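Blinded run. Sample ID left blank on purpose so nobody reads anything into the name before looking at the predicted structure. Input follows.
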Amino acid sequence: MPLYVSGVGFYCLIVYGAYVYITNNSEAPVLSKPLNEQKDTSHVYDEIAPTYDSGISTSEFWMGLPLLRRWMVKKATGDVLESSAGTGRNMKYYNVGKLRSITFVDTSSPMLEVAKQSFKEHHQEKWLQARARFVIQDAAAPMRTPSGNKFDTVIQSMGICSHRSPVQLLRSLGDACKPEGTIILLEHGRSHYDWLNRILDRYADKHADTWGCWWNRDIEGIVGQSGLKVSKVKRYHLGTTYWIEAQPPSSGEKRIEEVE
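Blinded prediction complete.
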């Protein structure tokens, strides 16, 4: 808890400093781009895969994100799908005794190769290695367990911000999950506060070019458009970090139309 509190304080100090700098050194505000005007940045992950973990480890540590990752992954049971798996930053937190199979999906082959190495490092159980898959594909496409069934648990961390069609991505996650299953999302996006959103908007393009993610997306709005049945939402770090628990849409339930 002391580490988490200090992390929040550190985060607030950094963003407030950025706010003061911007308000004193800029003229007109920069507006957030609609989803259909945000360029596809998936290629960035191929380039930064070797240095990705070292580049974000310090900031994640001070923000307490490893704790949130641990909480999320500890809830994974049965046949598990991890979408937008990246370099496997959740890998070491899995409780293997609760798993029947695990499937890691990502569009970036270099990122997923790092995840494979992390899996071998943290999980020596041969039975689990035989039931683990690393699939290079767009998570917006259909996904199933090795036996062709739907998953008991679907998790995703920091995936909405980087996908070119995040609403379709979430609809695919809903389709991949059993009706009685659980979907857990750990995401980042727009804040509770307009002054912080102005900072995110101003540097969104630069951040996307560097890290491959659009950090100023309206996460709750995107989730709402997807049709997932949300049971819990918690927000941290001035509202920019989202914890969302959801279930697939009920059969025949009408979805909200996607608005770009």
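Unblinding after everyone has recorded impressions. Confidence is low (pLDDT under 50) at residues 254-260.
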